[in-house]
Amino acid sequence: MILLDSLYINKSGGEVLLDYLVKNIEKEEIDCFYLFDIRGIDCFDYIPENRKIYLKASIFNRYKFYKKNINKFEKVICFANLPPFSSINRQVYTYFHQPMFLSVPAEFSFIKKISFMLKTFLLGAIIDNTNYWLVQSDHIKVKLQSKFNISPEKIEIIPFFPSFNTITNITRRKHTYIYVSTASPHKNHIRLIAAFCKFYDKYKIGELILTISDDYKKIIRLINLKNDMGYPIKNIGYVTRENLVEFYQSSEFSIYPSLAESFGLGIVEAIENGCNIIGADLPYTYSICKPSIIFNPSDVNSIFLALENSININININIKPTEQFVQNEIAGIIEILKN
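Below the sequence we write its predicted structure tokens.
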């Protein structure tokens, strides 16, 4: 039996990928037991009770689970960045997708910086407790290898992501810009909103579509303030993937100003739904695609100029369709689990 350890995965892109992976494991009828985060207890109802457990995410709970149960498993897949806390005599694969363990953005608060520094220290202490690392992109492989002095032969690039169903009767609206993301500080919403408002002040066209849940009260207040001032910023809140497809397929562009990503699932989703990408001039963007327009995500004026370029007014610029580089390699993950 295989153990899929997904403790600490409970929201955002990680949850999307976990759900997709679990469904494929079940589809292939692989003998697998699941360790889930208690915050996702409403998910995975289709998994029999005798093949899953939900725990509160903590070092102690995870260590105790391994100590009690590890002899039941022949192979372990750690899906939340951290190998087991002690060395185990099993084949272990660790799927790494947390760029903040490699470099903490300056925008983070002091407390959050300290938190990630401690987590990075913990990762360094257990770095040898896995046989192989699985990552989503070449730039994360290079950073992970350099940060922890890992042999490149032990790091394999296997991106995977679920596809959307195409809706045929949706009209794509001009000058619409969607950004599907949470509002953590490194996601860079404050600069994006400032740039969009500057753009709207000059041209009086465009709509910015965001997906900010009520958890991020500071950004919600900012959006409400801008709405009261007449700026067309539409926050659709948390949206299920089934409903999100309509917003993607009715938008002309996806703008992605995040300062740090391991993969950028929102970019892949947007491309697959026909959006052209206005992307940050950062390695994670180029690991996924050749964007139509680029900008410096740390500079409000650069984001403004990218929006300006997108409407091609008084600017001699040829905007080319975004070219996607990355493909879904879920079969590679399934192959590892089977063998």
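The radius of gyration is 21 Å.
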